[in-house]
Design brief:
Blueprint (H helix, E strand, L loop, with lengths): L1 E16 L4 E17 L3 E5 L6 H9 L6 E6 L2 E2 L10 H5 E4 L3 H4 L6 H12 L4 H14 L16 H13 L5 E5 L7 H18 L2 E6 L2 H7 L2 E6 L2 E7 H6 L4 H8 L9 H16 L4 E3 L5 E8 L5 E6 L4
Parallel strand pairs: 3-8, 3-9, 6-7, 7-8
Antiparallel strand pairs: 1-2, 1-4, 4-5, 9-10, 11-12, 12-13
Bound molecules: adenosine-5'-triphosphate.
């Protein structure tokens, strides 16, 4: 049973131009997506840069204006209440960002950074607040004396842990994690991901896990949507997406990561040959099975030869 539903969400940014600075077009950053979140489950949102992943996350939490669509939380339409301090939605949906360095106020000590959500949302006595901050630091594996330090005194992985501590301070149900490890060294990425899994299990947290990295999403998520130009081209359980991808864009995303590539070599080759044939026949476009059109451009292989035709934007 899902506790939150996103229905036909659209976020369009107007493009202004001309002498009168009128709206001449729109960027269809998010263009009609629907999702459901279940307790204790992680929902993965994958796609290449610019497809609308961050805009989706930010609009859910209320950092971006929604053009149309609705968010239903615990049976209530909260679309216009997302930033309302009094609403439980505002307390129970939190976000962590890729760049924890810039999302943590450099002029505040850790104690003050963690105090902020606690004071905004929980009514605690000073003693309870102090205890809560110590508990949060313990949960994210940071020492007690971190309280008095500033963000710059920590490593990238530690700063991301502090970002997580801040997000879990209000006992959230859903954490939107926007590329939470992509700015970290590879060695630290696994630690932070494992830690996120641990707290998910312990507190029954749900995640909206945003990433361009299908390997990371495979590790973290139960349900996955593949996003392309503001829309979902494919959604399904982790098993469906990795074992039996349907859309050519998903297949290409998967084939770009050999480690987790579930489609056999033969199929990978077939997809590539199919597109290459179109290119060699001097077609400028390739139409996939859903009628979507891609521009074809050449790409050079590591040996310097033309190895495949590439569908621009998709491949
Ligand atoms: N404030 C804005 N005004 C106009 N266009 C915007 C604005 N914010 C984002 N966009 C555009 O909306 C589209 C989606 O951007 P978004 O940042 O959501 O993509 P993304 O998938 O998260 O990319 P990345 O992985 O690089 O962060 C892009 O074309 C982007 O240029």
């Amino acid at each position: 049973m899902s506790f939150m539903q996103i229905n036909d969400l659209k976020v369009h940014y107007p493009i202004r131009g001309g002498f009168f600075n009128t709206v001449v077009d729109n960027v269809y950053a998010v263009d009609g997506i629907s999702m459901e979140f279940e307790r204790g489950k992680a929902y993965g949102l994958v796609g290449e840069s610019g497809c609308g992943k961050s805009t989706t996350g930010k609009s859910i939490i209320g950092l971006e204006k929604i053009s149309s669509g609705e968010i239903i939380y615990e049976g209530e339409n909260v679309t216009n209440k997302r930033r309302d301090r009094r609403s439980s939605y505002n307390r129970e949906i939190q976000m962590i960002f890729q760049d924890s360095h810039s999302s943590l106020n450099p002029r505040k000590r850790v104690k003050e950074i963690l105090q902020e959500p606690i004071r905004n949302f929980l009514s605690l006595t000073p003693a309870e607040e102090e205890k809560k901050i110590s508990e949060l630091l313990a949960i994210v594996g940071m020492p007690e004396d971190a309280k008095l330090k500033y963000p710059h005194e920590f490593s990238g992985g530690q700063k991301q842990r502090l970002g997580i501590a801040r997000a879990i301070a209000t006992n959230p149900k859903l954490i939107i994690a926007d590329e939470p490890v992509s700015a970290l060294d590879l060695s630290v990425q696994a630690q932070v991901l494992n830690f996120m899994k641990d707290i998910q299990n312990e507190y029954g947290l749900s995640y909206l896990f945003i990433s361009h990295d299908l390997g990371v999403v495979k590790h973290m998520c139960d349900h996955i949507s593949i996003m392309y130009r503001g829309r979902f081209v494919e959604s399904g359980s982790k098993e469906d997406i990795y074992k039996n991808p349907q859309h050519i864009y998903t297949k290409r995303l998967l084939s770009a990561i050999p480690d987790v590539n579930p489609i056999g070599r033969a199929e990978r080759k077939r997809t590539r040959i199919e597109v290459e044939k179109h290119y060699q026949a001097e077609h400028k476009h390739y139409f996939d099975e859903n009628g979507r059109v891609y521009d074809l451009v050449p790409v050079a292989g590591s040996n310097g030869h033309l190895v495949a035709a590439k569908a621009k934007g998709a491949f």
